[in-house]
């Protein structure tokens, strides 16, 4: 080591020694600058580069060239690497074999659990239970941090109103208010006591922005919308997540208003940093800097890299374009090194906040790993969230709950014993072999005297009908049939758009063959998105939406089917009757010709109804609830007032139950047209049979505010309707005015 280098090293070690002194923001800023001052241009650019580990059946592995990149200081972060021993090994390369010993960040897609897998996020959102949502994220972060991870690429906050888009499964559905509440709850769970606490990881708000508005529901497709729709519908959940303290943001693949998000300065700087004062760092999605070339907005590596950095993007995931092009751009005077310094500062700041300069190995504890992963408490939490996510869609003649001592019970269908499907997509380090199936859950739940029969009936999505006859024979022997149908894990999530929303393959043939046996049938849907099931709804007496429930799938579904848990889930997304209705969501505009069945020239179809099969917020219970009239404490309110809205809800059934009381608002006239209703509040109440509760909501001027004609955010005087009910359709209401 030459004299200069040893002097530099001494300086660095001296700085490293001072690292552990100051943890305040100013102190960290000083320490960041002290490291930055030592860095060469190449070392700075290395901090802006994120490469993937590989995940083989034996677990994460690192390509040899990436190890060389780490040693050469050309990598600042690695994703898809987890495990205390493995992350320690990689960290040792960075800390011991590089000139400045700057530790790596380890990130991973811990989206709905790390080892213990919770329901797909859309299903979890159906719980409307913010405490449960936060708990799920908390368990995930606890397990992830125990395996050496510092950072998760979650929560996904993309509003989605097109179920053809497979990634609708990763978010919280169609609604701005619910989506914002859930985004914040997920960040709180992920970051827990704050970035740097040992059982937390950094959150990453994705995919910024409006990725869920992909045209035709086709993944990665163009999004295009007015600034008003962007700000009113798509941005709020990202903002809620950032207001909850999210440390990082991920750019989305899509273009918006003609500019890909990864090169979109309006999004990444004007809105994110100038309007929202975001101080964390921005990472691209996978190779999305490179993708600006096929997008047609950059002609080569250098122009794509410059466009991203100048837009405000700090870290390049997997494209390697920053590594390849930034140094030459700076040396040629085409890019200011100060831009690179700003990006490096944001990233180093997070490494300091995580305590990695004090102890680079603090998250890589094999002891914590053993104590934390898939603990009994974590599995119980997963079961609890999974059953709270389940939505009872139909229950004619109270077929459900089933008796545990039924003599013969047939469990039929391609999802009945489909272990891998239960943990869905983006299932991180989840081991699907450890997931329970519906068949297993039923067997565990029924009495010793019950005979449980099983037949697969058909595959999830191929066209073989050979096994249907056997399934019919099995059903004919049973007293009641549980029919498990739906989608495969690979059919939801990224790059999984579908042009049809029917139950795939020949499952409908199986369903109708089982129906013809005349046996009582309970259909259990296991799927990652709304499906078009009008035939099922018209013919099958009981239907349960169980989503893709995670590690504890079998137990959670059985808890509901046999009544150990009274289903309380409510749909976070509209279920259309047919794919032709899409986009279909409750908070639509009225149009100048609202549908009138007696007038041809109004907004409707020749061949389909306008209304959904099941509306947003819909879900049944094993009991029933009634709603009294909606009352307001004043007919007129001012900007300064609070409006108190109340409604008495009564459990009119024979068993206790949880009801999600929802409040919707309709601004009758505005300087721009307003949705026919918008969710502005919800409360979950538990009522014993016969009990009533006066449910109260408070509305303020902020709740009545919107982006007015001139794009200013605020209220306008006029009439409002306020509704309360169990979903977006079956409501009661009253009116008031804002002066
Ligand atoms: C993927 C996804 C993104 C994920 C990232 C890293 O392509 O779009 O959600 O976090 O790459 O795996």
Automatic annotation (TrEMBL):
Signal peptide: none annotated. Its EC number is 3.2.1.21. GO terms for cellular component: periplasmic space. GO terms for biological process: glucan catabolic process. Pfam families: Fn3-like, Glyco_hydro_3, Glyco_hydro_3_C. Its main location: periplasm. PANTHER family: LYSOSOMAL BETA GLUCOSIDASE, PERIPLASMIC BETA-GLUCOSIDASE-RELATED. It is found in: Periplasm. The keyword Signal applies. It comes from Dawidia cretensis. Residues 659-728 form the Fibronectin type III-like domain. PROSITE patterns: GLYCOSYL_HYDROL_F3. Belongs to the glycosyl hydrolase 3 family. InterPro entries: Cellulose_Degrad_GH3, Fn3-like, GH, Glyco_hydro_3_AS, Glyco_hydro_3_C, Glyco_hydro_3_C_sf, Glyco_hydro_3_N, Glyco_hydro_3_N_sf. Keywords: Glycosidase, Hydrolase, Periplasm, Signal. The keyword Signal applies. This is Periplasmic beta-glucosidase. It is an enzyme of class 3 (hydrolase). One of its GO terms (molecular function) is beta-glucosidase activity. It catalyses: Hydrolysis of terminal, non-reducing beta-D-glucosyl residues with release of beta-D-glucose.
């Amino acid at each position: 080591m030459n004299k200069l280098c040893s002097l530099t090293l001494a300086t660095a070690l001296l700085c490293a020694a001072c690292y552990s002194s100051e943890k305040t923001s100013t102190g960290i800023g000083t320490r960041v600058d002290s490291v930055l001052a030592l860095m060469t241009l190449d070392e700075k650019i290395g901090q802006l580069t994120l490469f993937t580990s590989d995940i083989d059946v034996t677990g994460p592995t690192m390509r040899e060239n990436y190890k060389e990149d780490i040693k050469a200081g050309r990598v600042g972060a690695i994703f898809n690497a987890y495990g205390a021993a493995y992350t320690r090994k990689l960290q040792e390369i960075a800390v011991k074999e590089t000139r400045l010993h700057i530790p790596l960040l380890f990130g991973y897609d811990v989206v709905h659990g790390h080892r213990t897998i919770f329901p797909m996020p859309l299903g979890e959102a159906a719980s409307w239970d913010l405490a449960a949502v936060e708990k799920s994220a908390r368990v995930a972060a606890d397990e992830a941090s125990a395996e050496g991870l510092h950072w998760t690429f979650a929560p996904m906050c993309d509003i989605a109103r097109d179920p053809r888009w497979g990634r609708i499964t990763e978010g919280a559905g169609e609604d701005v208010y619910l989506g914002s509440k859930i985004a914040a709850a997920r960040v709180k769970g992920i970051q827990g006591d704050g970035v740097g606490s040992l059982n937390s990881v950094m959150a990453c708000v994705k995919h910024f922005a409006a990725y869920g508005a992909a045209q035709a529901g086709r993944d990665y497709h163009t999004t295009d919308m007015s600034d008003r729709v962007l700000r009113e519908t798509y941005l709020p959940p990202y903002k809620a997540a950032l207001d909850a303290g999210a440390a990082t943001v991920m750019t989305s693949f899509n273009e918006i208003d003609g500019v890909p998000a990864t090169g979109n300065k309006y999004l990444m700087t004007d809105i994110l940093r100038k309007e929202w004062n975001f101080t964390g760092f921005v990472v691209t999605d996978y190779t999305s800097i490179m993708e600006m070339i096929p997008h047609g907005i950059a002609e080569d590596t250098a122009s794509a890299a410059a466009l991203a950095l100048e837009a405000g993007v700090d870290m390049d995931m997997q494209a390697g374009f920053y590594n390849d092009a930034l140094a030459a751009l700076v040396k040629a005077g085409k890019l200011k090194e100060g831009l690179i310094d700003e990006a490096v500062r944001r990233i180093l700041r997070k490494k300091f906040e995580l305590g990695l300069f004090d102890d680079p190995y603090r998250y890589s504890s094999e002891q914590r790993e053993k104590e934390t992963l898939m603990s009994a408490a974590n599995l119980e939490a997963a079961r609890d969230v999974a059953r709270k996510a389940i939505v009872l869609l139909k229950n004619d003649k109270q077929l459900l709950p089933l008796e545990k001592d039924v003599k013969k019970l047939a469990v039929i269908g391609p999802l009945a014993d489909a272990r891998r499907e239960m943990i869905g997509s983006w299932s991180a380090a989840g081991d699907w072999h450890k997931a329970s199936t519906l068949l297993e859950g039923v067997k565990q739940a029924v009495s010793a005297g019950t005979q449980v029969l099983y037949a697969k009936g058909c595959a999830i999505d191929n066209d073989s009908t050979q096994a249907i006859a056997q399934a019919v024979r099995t059903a004919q022997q049973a007293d009641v049939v549980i029919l498990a149908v739906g989608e495969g894990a690979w059919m939801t999530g990224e790059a999984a758009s579908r042009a049809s929303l029917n139950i795939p393959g020949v499952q409908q043939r199986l369903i109708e063959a089982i129906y013809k046996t005349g046996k009582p049938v309970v259909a259990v849907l296991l799927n990652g998105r709304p499906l078009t099931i009008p035939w099922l709804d018209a013919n099958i007496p009981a239907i349960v939406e169980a989503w893709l429930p995670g590690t504890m799938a079998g137990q959670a579904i059985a808890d509901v089917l046999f009544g150990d848990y009274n289903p309380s889930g409510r749909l976070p997304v509209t279920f259309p009757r047919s794919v032709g209705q899409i986009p279909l969501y409750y908070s639509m505009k009225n149009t100048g010709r609202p549908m009138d069945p007696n007038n041809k020239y109004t907004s409707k179809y020749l061949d389909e109804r306008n209304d959904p099969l099941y509306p947003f917020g819909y879900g049944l219970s094993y009991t029933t609830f009634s709603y009294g009239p909606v009352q307001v404490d004043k007919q007129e309110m001012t900007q300064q007032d609070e409006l108190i809205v109340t409604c008495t809800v009564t459990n009119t059934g024979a068993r206790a139950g949880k009801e999600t009381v929802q409040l919707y608002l309709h601004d009758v006239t505005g300087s721009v047209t307003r949705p026919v209703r918008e969710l502005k509040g919800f409360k979950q109440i538990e009522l014993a049979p016969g009990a009533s509760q006066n449910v109260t909501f408070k509305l303020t001027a902020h709740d009545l505010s919107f982006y007015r004609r001139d794009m200013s955010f605020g209220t306008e005087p006029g009439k409002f309707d306020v509704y309360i009910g169990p979903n977006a359709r079956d409501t009661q209401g009253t009116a008031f005015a804002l002066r």
